[in-house]
Prior knowledge:
587 residues, alpha/beta, four-stranded antiparallel beta sheet, 22 helices, 64% helix, elongated, disordered N terminus
Amino acid sequence: MTATLDREVLVEAPEEVSEGKRAAAATAELRAPVMARTRVAMVLAGLSALAGLVPFIGLGALADVLPRHGDATTVAWVIAAGLGARGVLMGLALAITHFADVDLQADLRRRIVRRLGRVPLGWFSERSSGAVRKAAQDDIATLHHLVAHHSPELTAAVVLPLGGIGYLLLLDWRLALLSVATLPAYAAAYAWMMRGYQEKMEGMNTAFARISAAVVEFVTGIGVVKAFGRERRAHESYHRAAGEFGRFYAEWVRPMLRLEAVSGLALSAPVVGLASLAGVWWFVSEGWVTPAEALTEVLLAMVIPTTVMAISFGAHDRRLAGAAAVRLHDLLTAPELPVAAEPLVPRDNGVEFDDVRFSYDGTTDVLRGVSAVLAPGTVTALVGPSGSGKSTLATLLPRFHDVTGGAVRVGGVDVRDIAPEQLYRWIGFVLQDVALVHGTIADNIRLGRPEATDAEVRAAAEAARIHERVLELPDGYDTVDARLSGGEAQRVAIARALLADCPVLVLDEATAFADPESEAAVQDALSELTKGRTLLVIAHRLATITGVDRILVLDDGEVVEQGTHDELLHRAGRYARMWAAHQGDER
């Protein structure tokens, strides 16, 4: 029942549920696989706390035995046994939770890998790799304290004072009240400090965001700022944001520091000790308790504040873990790419866009009624102004996203009816942002076909015109994390695509990062890549696509013209104007 309620809270719209509830629900869901072991550890920690009371009670008993010259051996052994049991039980509890934490971390990372392997590729383009790394590494690490320490230590921190107060109640109810005499002052001060905490934190986060934005704005535009001698003015926005944050923080923290001093004083050892000594002196003088019982109260009263402080200090860690749990839950529930129940296989490498419509947000279409046929073995180029939908249309072919209307077909089969692993053997892509993974040059090329031999990897590199550059590296093809220029990295990606030998290829801004020296090599590599394949190419440099089989001109999400280079120039339309502007730029 609890798990069901947690899931219901997590799926509600964020504005309908507080962050605290979402954090609690996400934490409970993520910890569910290890909760059975955690409960066992909590029982052991509770027993450990009770065993920890034995030495304090034993010392009180010694104070009663020794003045009468009684045998203190038994009491001493009981004290030693209590100390030993406390250490063993808490050690066992923490061992259980630490092993549970290791298992949970491994399980979460496996779940993340499985989920990321099933989300649409477009999901990654909408999120930074840093956000994914933070969830997979930092956020999982943040959960360590919650899983491995929080539950047993909190249990011990609660059971120890409750057990002590319970024992004092057995001795005399006045001793129990005396042991917590300073707690009301601490509780009142703490409650006053926590007034409006959430709103204050939101205000502080907003102030931090303004400072960050000011820093980014200054750093991003520092070249222009220095060129025009406007450093002083550029610093003003940062000084303003920093000043606002400083005033906000000071107004919040200054009164809290005084209250914190008062609350801390209420639980400090001298204050608690003096209050207890004064109280038991009165009680003993009135004959209500014995000196031994008075000593027991003083010892236990000194322990209670430390447990209360431990509980309050753990609140910050719980909030951090809750926020991490929400981010992990969002990652683990990212929408998966739908897979057809009965996948089909394309019959050839022809491509068709059939009345394609697409929207990122579900309301505004960025593509409207796009239709085109790419015959097998032909090269089709997409051109148009920035924001016209070129890259969006191209990424629909390898199914970075699914269309919201119409269909994209390969070999007569809707890409949504092709199994993902089959689709990516059929369609390859060399995108604008070249991604080289951690590893050797050979590993990066071999991503296209992991079982490829060294000779096949070398042949692909030679065809991509990157072989000679690789040989110049310190360890050749075994060089790890090689420093390559944009054009060189582009050619490694082309070698990867050649090795994969996909019949359909998408080239997005193929020479976008090519330096002048390597642009010709990239173009030669692309010539090898086009042989016998169906290509969909995006390029802003119109001179590179004059010989393609067909050009699609997009504007505002629609195909406004299509034909060969000569046909489009003859029509004197949008493409002809783009060509004229391009020729002017070239001159």
